[in-house]
Amino acid sequence: MPDKPLTVAYFTMEIGLTSSMPTFAGGLGILAADIMRSCADLAVPAACITVCWQHGYLHQHIHADGTQEYENTPWDPASVLKRLPETVKVSLEGREVTVGAWLYEIVSNGHTVPVYFLDTNLQENTPEDREITSFLYGGDLAMRIRQEAVLGIGGVRMLRALKYGEIGTYHMNEGHAAFLTLELLKEREYSDGNVRKSCAFTTHTPVKAGHDVFDYGLASRVLGDAIPWHIKKIAGEDALSMTHLAMHLSRYTCAVSRIHGQVSRRMFPGESIDAITNGVHHTTWTCPSMQSLFDRYASGWRNDPSVLERTCREFPDDDLWEAHQEAKKALLAYVNERTDQTFDVDTLTIASARRVVPYKRPELLYTNLERLKEVCGGRVQIIHSGNAHPSDPFSQEVIQRMVQRSRTLHDFVKIHYIENYNPDLAKLLVAGTDVWLNTPTRLHEASGTSGMKACVNGVLNLSTLDGWWIEGYGRDPEAGWRIGPLAEALGDAEEDRKVDAEDFYTQLQYEVIPEYYYQERRRWIRRMKRAVGLMGYFNTHRCVHEYLRKAWTPS
Ligand SMILES: *Cc1c(COP(=O)(O)O)cnc(C)c1O
């Protein structure tokens, strides 16, 4: 390859390009894939550096009693990716570990964004070192350091081996990639300023405990002299914080929504943290029937999704409704194949699907079962999906309870929990439901992107005001509904929970259900158009333009 310059080398621990490549765990990887797709569409000279995880996203099977099994998704990188001849070495615990790479190409309109999957599962390595790229987020802290060294240090060396020329910005998608700065320091005579001018960083984690922090003794043992003498000045006095390292060696740091920017600035006082609100890749997440509607009435939307904002009000009501009903039928057919209940296309459908973790409060809607029965009484059907972590028994019990409730509440509201949430299933869900429900604890959802995927399909969000929905609802309150007060009005966690649950029932009873069944359909359809309109903003083309302007323009 000749001396090819890059605007951005985008480093990410995970990427979720397809359901068949389980090299991701959740939203972070899905976002990385969407941003890279937009780079390809917009012909941005970009390359992505990630890791070829043997085991990332797990396959979930749910038994009739609600207990679950999680299995590794078997996949063969050689069947999807191209093995590259280049290898590099990274020194770990004094051993020279060989790192290879696989190539995946995202091609759009003749422009290619290469995605390099780094891999230590090579003959040259010891059996232990071959395991470094086995389990995404698996293993102990020493393993995590090895993995992050392969990504950061190995990644920079791989770019050199691939003979890339000038690289405008090394982008760290979350702190996992921050060791890339150590390699750049070594290349640039340990000048912080020289490294800082080439780096940018996105933080994704609004909770302190979610940030990687390593003991200096351990880090030195694993990384040896890759750790520079002044590490404590740049990565923290007490321990090596990947977030501090990334922030202190970046000329630009951002959070992933405006509220997350505020939360991050509070969490890291004195740091300069901007915000670029996430988006989703519009053509990837729009269902086929909506795509064909947009092709007819929103000409140009594929190249420029902001067209949707200007054209959505002109969509003919019947066409929009028909396009939605088609997506709904596809989802309900999928559900009905998997349950002995019959979900029907004329019943208001609410879907709530995401990783099962406490802060997302997946059971909020079941806080008061009597109230739920009274409100829903035969007029609502609910679809859930989402994986728990295999070593998190509490979240697995949440799923079990939700499965069991589908039996006890059967006469009042149909509920089905679809097993094995993944991007393909997400596509069906975000397009085929009528309402997308999200109930995170305020200030805990950095952005969230599934609600944006719902919007582009004319599906209405019903969500607590957190992450992106503060901005979405703020731009157009007709595009859905909010649950509970604004993020600023924070009280005690249990108290908040009660208030939000009560407000959820109220919204459902007095807003959502009447609008769906008893008012003119035009009103609902008007909201659907407004939801599609939001996609003019919450797409990754806008994100990439914003990144180019704020993060990827070297100073
Ligand atoms: C979009 C998506 C996510 C992220 O959605 P959230 O809004 O953060 O819940 C996670 N997993 C899959 C499979 C997705 O498609």
Descriptive notes:
The protein is α/β, with parallel strands linked by helices and 555 residues long. It folds into two domains: 6-279 and 542-550, 3-Layer(aba) Sandwich (Rossmann fold); 300-536, 3-Layer(aba) Sandwich (Rossmann fold). Helix content is 41%, strand content 20%. It contains 22 helices and 20 strands. Strands 1, 2, 5, 6, 7, 8, 9, 10, 13 and 14 form a ten-stranded mixed beta sheet that branches. A six-stranded parallel beta sheet has the order 17-16-15-18-19-20, sandwiched between helices. A two-stranded antiparallel ribbon has the order 3-4. Helix 4 packs across helix 5 (180-187). It is globular and about 70 Å long. The two termini are 27 Å apart. The mean pLDDT is 96. The protein binds pyridoxal-5'-phosphate.
Topology of this structure?
Layout (H helix, E strand, L loop, with lengths): L3 E9 L14 H15 L4 E6 L6 E5 L5 E5 L4 H4 L1 E2 L4 E5 L2 E14 L2 E9 L7 H4 L10 H21 L2 E10 L6 H8 L4 H5 L2 E4 L10 E2 L1 H8 L7 H5 L4 E2 H7 L3 E4 L2 H10 L6 E2 L6 H4 L2 H10 L9 H5 L5 H20 L11 E6 L15 H8 L3 E6 L7 H16 L5 E5 L4 H10 L2 E4 L11 H7 L3 E5 L3 H8 L4 E4 L9 H25 L3 H14 L5 H11 L5
Parallel strand pairs: 1-2, 1-9, 2-8, 9-10, 10-13, 13-14, 15-16, 15-18, 16-17, 18-19, 19-20
Antiparallel strand pairs: 3-4, 5-7, 6-7, 7-8, 11-12
The protein binds pyridoxal-5'-phosphate.
